[in-house]
Amino acid sequence: MDRAAVAKAVDQAWDESVLPSLSELVKIPAISPAFDTGWAAAGHLDAAIEHLRAWISARDIPGANIEVLRLPERTPLLLVDIPASEGAPDETTLLYGHLDKQPPVGGWSEGLEPWTPVVRDGRLYGRGAADDGYAGYAAITAIESVRAHGGAHARCVVLLETGEESGSPDLPAYLEHLSERLGDVSLVVCLDSGAGDYDRLWLTNSLRGMAQLEVKVQVLDNGLHSGIASGIAPSSFRVLRQLLDRLEDSATGEILVSELNVPIPENRIAEARSAIEAAPGLVRNVVPWPDGLRPVDEDEVELALNSTWRPTLSVIGADGLPLPADAGNVLRPYTTVMLSFRLPPTADPEAAMRAIQERLTTDVPYGAKVTFGHTETGLGWHAPDPAAWLSTALDQASHEVFGAGWRTMGLGGSIPFMGLLHDAYPDAQFVVTGALGPDSNAHVPDESLHLAFAAKVTSAVAYVLDAHACR
Fold it and tell me: What 3-state DSSP class applies to 38?
């Protein structure tokens, strides 16, 4: 493969074809179903799929089969099946991305809006530009560039779902539906991940799992005047505090439930140290620190391990607590909180959930009533070691495209699809990468895609596809 020609072609495609179409995709408010219960009637997810389907169809890739799948009562999925180059192994490369988006949220900077694409200082601003609208474009462009410049690739299946921001609840059903059609998946490329900086190629080596549950502590059927009832009936908030102390050391943040903790592999510790040496501030600088606020540890390697291999608890919602302006002198009847646990990549999320619920319901203080509402779990993921052919391809891409050696990093978030795929295809190689680098602002105001970096990631994927076919 003429790798120099590939990089040049990719840059040209991004300027002339990808950017104009991706900008139009930004305009579509394809909010994920968890945040838009009327998604089916609104039709925005369908519009996003149709927009990209039309762009891919216009590329006129020989033999490509482009299909929109719609299982009953499921979000739609776009599947692009491209036959292998002549002589390539009878295997499948699966390339993944998603088209659903986070809600727009307020607070965008002057001149920027969630559904209005703006190119400024080499970035495309708008909701879904970086997370993860660019992925389908990058995958198709990488495949095209390989075919056009003497390279080879195995059969490529590009899978773009529309429920990732909701935890990919429909993806297991689609994977089961497609299991025979996908065949022998030996390489997975995920373009929904991040980068520590824009100077080199970054691969994700682990993703945390998750366990989320709504917990309600009830002590009374109705609220009572606090001047009469306090000191006689227990406070639901105080009972909740005691129960949370069974789960987390409030002084350190350490999770006290053994099922949520795992040994940290030595190679991941070494890789975290190497990543931070290459990009100081990699972890610390993800937080915009207010004056006077300190991190939970001054050692950045420890911060990296905290955010990738150690479980954490966040209270992400509450009910039963009136706004301060509306608060009366009432001993409230109940307190409800939504607990979100990030789990180590190799922890069993179902076992973790059972252990959490047992801690919360055993010997509850004062006999208060504990009930659970919404619960959700998600698999983590721990990457297999890269094969020799993959390491060589990554070395070539890093030095020829980026001019710097590649690094790996764990991510504290979750991509449930990776865990599902690893279970389904345990012998596959995984390239989990992406353009979500510093200041890309996924999920928050001013989301943006670093265009030059996204093009470089696209070229790197082309290197990997060719190396996979020629190994």
Answer: coil
Q: Name the band, by pLDDT with cuts 50, 70 and 90, for residue 424.
A: confident
DSSP state letter for 351: H
Collapse the DSSP code of 78 into the 3-class scheme (helix H, G, I; strand E, B; otherwise coil) and give the result: strand
> Model confidence at 408, in pLDDT bands (50, 70, 90)?
very high
Reported CATH class of domain 209-262+309-377:
alpha beta
Reading the block at residue 13, the tokens are 């495609």
Predicted confidence at residue 240, as pLDDT, reads 98
Buried b (16+ CB within 10 A) or exposed e, 314-341: eeeeeebeeeeeeeeeebbbbbbbbbbb
Q: Residue 149: its pLDDT value, please?
A: 97
Q: What's the pLDDT at 418? A: 85
* Residue 199: strand, helix, or coil: coil
Which amino acid makes up residue 34?
Answer: A
% the chain with pLDDT above 90: 95
Cβ contacts of 274-283, under 8 Å, gap ≥ 24: 274/407, 275/196, 275/304, 275/407, 275/408, 275/409, 276/300, 276/301, 276/304, 278/196, 278/200, 278/405, 278/407, 279/196, 279/197, 279/199, 279/407, 282/196, 282/197, 282/409, 283/307
DSSP three-state, residue 190: strand
> Contact at 8 Å (CB) between 66 and 100?
no
Write the burial class of residue 56 (CB in 10 Å: 0-12 exposed, 13-18 middle, 19+ buried).
buried
User: Is the bond preceding 132 in cis, omega lying within 30 degrees of 0?
Assistant: yes
User: Contact at 8 Å (CB) between 143 and 111?
Assistant: no
Q: pLDDT (tens digit, 9 = 90+) per residue, 80-111?
A: 999 999 999 999 999 999 999 999 999 999 99
DSSP state of 344: -
Which residues share a beta bridge with 378?
210
The answer to whether the predicted template modeling score (pTM) of the entire model surpasses 0.85 is yes
Tokens found for residue 65? 């089969």
Side-chain half-sphere exposure of 373, counting CA atoms within 13 A: 12
Domain ranges across the chain: 3-207+380-470, 209-262+309-377
Binned at pLDDT 50, 70 and 90, residue 167 comes out as confident
The domain defined by 3-207+380-470 carries CATH number 3.40.630.10: yes
